[in-house]
Structure to design on (262 residues):
């Protein structure tokens, strides 16, 4: 199952990037079929897909937009109206829970390059108009700034890769050494050795264990790279963007369902 998926809604232009933290399949309590009825969607709700655009009538039945125009008066519009009222009111003008956190609620961010993309995308969202959250920055990022931010992310992750590979290689060697009957000392090649003095082996094992613990701590080189990433992102901001109160509540904007705000 993919760790991440991205999609773009064909009509609204919304783009979605989803990171999967947990996935389950074929549990006894899972539905055997997923459809509008499962989500309690009302009659008349729009169904938009590459192969079909139309309206849902319930019980698995759908009709085209043209057909819906001729029969819509047969159905009570109240459930559909109530659905959109709830939908539009939900979280409008509010911000995500991570909004006011300096590191956007990403645990271990500074020394975990896998989280840097999430951080940069949230940074972009915070400094850019967002129809999804119905909020707007008074001085939004330009497309040039957004592209530059993504380029910075790519560059910093590229710089981090050899550091991570070096640490991973050394940890693998240490784990192999600690698992052998005769553990080589740091600097020795990891290979099967003839049994040596037990006390000497214990000393070597202790040295390796301490080195392993050190390697498993936040890597200073990676932490410095994250600091570089943050500084380079900040350098992209114009004066008026930087002066904006970062933790202030953004202004709601007026939007219509299925359309971008004017």
């Amino acid at each position: 199952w993919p760790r991440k998926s991205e999609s773009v809604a064909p009509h609204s232009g919304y783009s979605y990037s989803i990171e999967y933290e947990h996935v389950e399949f074929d549990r006894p309590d899972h539905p055997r079929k997923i459809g509008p009825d499962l989500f309690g969607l009302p009659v008349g709700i729009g169904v938009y897909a590459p192969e079909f655009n139309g309206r849902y009538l319930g019980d698995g039945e759908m009709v085209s937009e043209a057909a819906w125009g001729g029969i819509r008066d047969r159905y009570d519009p109240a459930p559909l109206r109530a659905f959109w009222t709830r939908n539009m009111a939900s979280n409008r003008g509010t911000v995500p829970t991570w909004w006011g956190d300096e590191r956007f609620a990403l645990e271990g961010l500074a020394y975990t390059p896998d989280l840097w993309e999430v951080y940069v995308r949230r940074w972009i969202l915070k400094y850019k108009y967002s129809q999804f959250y119905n909020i707007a920055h008074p001085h939004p990022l330009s497309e040039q700034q957004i592209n530059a931010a993504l380029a910075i992310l790519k560059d910093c992750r590229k710089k981090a890769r050899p550091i991570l590979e070096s640490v991973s290689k050394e940890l693998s060697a240490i784990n192999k050494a600690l698992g052998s009957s005769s553990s080589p000392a740091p600097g020795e090649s990891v290979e099967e050795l003839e049994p040596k003095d037990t006390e000497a082996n214990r000393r070597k094992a202790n040295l390796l264990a301490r080195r392993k613990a050190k390697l498993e701590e936040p890597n200073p080189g990676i932490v410095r790279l994250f600091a570089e990433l943050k500084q380079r992102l900040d350098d992209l901001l114009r004066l008026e963007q930087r002066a904006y109160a970062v933790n202030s509540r953004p202004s709601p904007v007026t939007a219509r369902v299925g359309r971008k705000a004017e």
User: Anything to note?
Assistant: Strands lie at 4-8, 15-19, 46-49, 52-58, 61-64, 135-136, 251-252. Residues 143-179 form the longest helix (37 residues).
